[in-house]
Specification:
This protein is of the alpha/beta class. It contains six helices and nine strands. The strands form three sheets. It has a five-stranded parallel sheet with strand order 2-1-3-4-5, with helices on both faces. It has a two-stranded parallel ribbon with strand order 6-9. A two-stranded antiparallel ribbon has the order 7-8. 25% of the residues are buried.
């Protein structure tokens, strides 16, 4: 199958690690994937369109994208943070909604070859969730269990000299874990010439 992976963030300045990992999973299953920031304008037929959502304020934008996509594509899937927090907003568009993380995806390294050019930075997580349960925060809803990320180094792009960490609250970790992370980071910086 041909699958278009679309970043539904209207104003995002970073690429989606989730879509890069989903692309890796789908390619491992024999599918052909291409990453887009908007709906594809090219005439290539796609069997499925997968749209990621990030911010809830982008919901009207993503819903407009869905309506436009439905004119050209039969199967549209939506996932990500906004879709997980407010799934009914997307279900009313009659699309398949994925709520929460796809656990199987976490085992894959991001497929950076989906990007148009080599990335300047890698993206990873040292942990998921948060040790705090603040009532105003969505992290306990999205990632209710705090857990250290195992094998996070697989997410690093070999040529990138910077790392962007997507941890929700790294400094809230127990001191023992912060020390372990710091030692791991020192080693990785030295080994991979990262600054």
């Amino acid at each position: 199958m041909r699958i278009a992976l679309i970043d539904g963030s209207k104003h995002s300045t970073v690429y989606s690690i989730a879509l890069l990992k989903i692309g890796a999973l789908l390619k491992s299953q024999g599918h052909k994937c291409k990453l887009f920031n908007r709906l594809p304008k090219e005439n290539i037929k796609y069997d499925e369109v997968w749209i990621s959502t990030l911010f809830t304020f982008d919901i009207p934008y993503v819903k407009g994208m869905i309506r436009e996509a439905k004119k050209r594509y039969k199967v549209i899937k939506v996932g990500g943070i906004a879709a997980s927090l407010l799934p009914d907003k997307f279900k009313e568009e009659n699309v398949e909604v994925t709520i929460g993380r796809i656990k199987e995806v976490e085992e894959f390294a991001p497929d950076y070859s989906l990007l148009k050019e080599n990335p300047e930075y890698s993206i990873t997580y040292l942990s998921r969730g948060c040790v705090r349960k603040c009532k105003f925060c969505m992290v306990p809803i999205l990632e209710p269990k705090y857990e250290r990320t195992q094998n996070w180094e697989k997410d690093l792009y070999p040529g990138a000299r910077k790392i962007l960490f997507y941890d929700n609250n790294w400094l809230a970790k127990p001191n023992k874990e912060i020390k372990k992370d710091t030692e791991d980071l020192k080693r990785v910086v030295k080994e991979k010439n990262i600054y």
